[in-house]
Every structure is written in C-alpha cells, then in structure tokens.
Amino acid sequence: VQLQASGGGLVQAGGSLRLSCVASGLTFSSSVLGWFRQAPGKEREFVAVISYGGYNTLYSDSVEGRFTISRDNAKNMVYLQMSSLTPEDTAVYYCGARQSSLWHVATVKSANKYKHWGQGTQVTVSS
Hints:
This protein is mostly beta strands. Helix content is 3%, strand content 48%.
C-alpha cells in the first residue's frame, strides 16, 4: 500500500490550499480515508475523515467550516480543501487509510487506528 500526499506550501494567513493524496495497493473504494497533521513538538492530530462512499465526513473543531474533505474513488484520490488558513494550521499534513468500511467515530478519528500513511506534505501559514 502506498499513499502520496502533495499540495502543501507556504501561504499567507487567510489564504487557501488544496492537498491531494493518491493511493495504490488497497481497495480504495472500501477504505476510510483521513487527514491528520503534526506540528513540531506535538502529537499527530485528527483533521478530517471521509467514509468509503463519501457520504459521511467528520472534522476537528479547529477546522470545521474552513476545511473540506472529498474523495474520487475512480481516481483513488482524497483531497483536503483548506480555506481561511491561520498560522495555527502550520504543520505537516498526512493522509491515512483504513482498509475497513467501518464508520465508528472514535475509531476513524484516532491516528493509531490507521495502518497506512503517506509521507506528509508541509503546510506553512505566515501571519
């Protein structure tokens, strides 16, 4: 299984970025996909998750209303559209995959429940 994230960069506060993650080697259409982030000196934290069919999504309180997760099962892609970025959003962003269609809120929001990870993409928001 391979996941490759891209789309990070340097952006000014208030700006937008779109992260992408392409997956291979797994049954993508039946996998739960999530975005997590990790700032220096902090633990990896949940950002957003989308169910296998794309009908259910969850967001952390800190990004709710600003970020949108989506997926394209035909292309094995998951996206994270980020808007109204603030310096507090600065982190390495990781896409993760669970080869399970189970939608249990506590599980899909927990980083240690994901077996497969991309390499991460740096997002830096300047003030």
